[in-house]
């Protein structure tokens, strides 16, 4: 899927222009992101539409930004790294995302995979994300307001699961919703000591890999 044909507003100008996105992609490449499929989706996706207008001039900096309710939109490098780790061996058809937030990570996934199922516990954030999905005509994203720790069992199993908030340990409910040959990416650990973790399911059980240190907001239960 290409985002290059979206409306004029999506293209932006100045600090939110296509040139700004091109520079961001160049920085991502210089910092080790090598999957061209991921880079091309990020190149054409208007990140400035996923944050408050007052912060739009910072949209293509490689930094996390606040989106309200104590949540953030992850820095572009982290989004790119999680995405390329998820699709390294194959493009999954059905992906579950835990923590919709602004909707940016789901939108990146939507440019690569068949269907994205995304769960968000904060209804206000989910409503805003849904408006963005509609504006960008991302019709392969399904969303749900619920406790993300529970996943989306009615739609399981999933080929891949991506968690955008950190818990002290992996959630058993999410592992149970992973397909027999699936892949799960999640930050794990307490604040200040989180590690990006990849779990792969196989005939001999789980394979766990540590992909490096990260910093995410905590994975909370309930809804708001």
Structural class: alpha/beta
Cα radius of gyration in angstroms = 16 Å
Question: Approximately what portion of the residues adopt beta-strand conformation?
Answer: 25-35%
- Termini separation comes to 33 Å
Mean pLDDT: 92
Give a brief rundown of this model:
By secondary structure, the protein is an alpha/beta fold.
Notable features of this structure?
224 residues, globular, alpha/beta, single chain, two-stranded antiparallel ribbon, 7 helices
Task: Provide a descriptive summary of the structure in words.
The protein is α/β, with parallel strands linked by helices and 224 residues long. It contains seven helices and nine strands; from the N terminus they run H-H-H-E-E-H-E-H-E-H-E-E-H-E-E-E. The chain has helices spanning 8-11, 18-30, 36-44, 76-86, 104-110, 123-135, 172-175; strands at residues 65-68, 71-73, 94-98, 115-120, 141-145, 158-163, 178-188, 194-202, 205-214. A seven-stranded mixed beta sheet has the order 5-4-3-6-7-8-9. The longest helix has 13 residues, at 18-30. The N and C termini lie far apart (33 Å). Residues 4-10 have low confidence and may be disordered.
């Amino acid at each position: 899927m290409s985002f290059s044909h979206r409306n004029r507003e999506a293209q932006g100008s100045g600090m939110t222009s296509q040139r700004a996105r091109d520079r961001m992609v160049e920085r991502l490449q210089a910092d080790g992101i090598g999957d061209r499929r991921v880079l091309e989706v990020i190149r054409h996706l208007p990140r400035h539409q996923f944050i408050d207008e007052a912060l739009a001039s910072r949209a293509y900096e490689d930094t996390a930004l606040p989106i309200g309710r104590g949540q953030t939109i992850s820095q572009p490098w982290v989004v790119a790294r999680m995405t390329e780790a998820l699709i390294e061996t194959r493009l999954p058809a059905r992906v579950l995302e835990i923590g919709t937030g602004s909707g940016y990570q789901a939108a990146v996934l939507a440019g690569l995979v068949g269907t994205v199922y995304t769960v968000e516990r904060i209804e206000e954030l989910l409503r805003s994300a849904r408006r963005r999905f509609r504006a960008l005509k991302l019709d392969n994203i399904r969303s749900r307001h619920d406790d993300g720790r529970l996943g989306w069992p009615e739609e399981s199993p999933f080929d891949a699961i991506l968690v955008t908030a950190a818990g002290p340990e992996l959630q058993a409910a999410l592992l149970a919703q992973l397909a027999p040959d699936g892949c799960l990416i999640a930050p794990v650990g307490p604040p200040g000591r989180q590690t990006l973790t990849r779990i792969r399911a196989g005939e001999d059980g789980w394979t766990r890999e540590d992909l490096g240190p990260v910093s995410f907001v905590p994975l909370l239960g309930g809804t708001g």
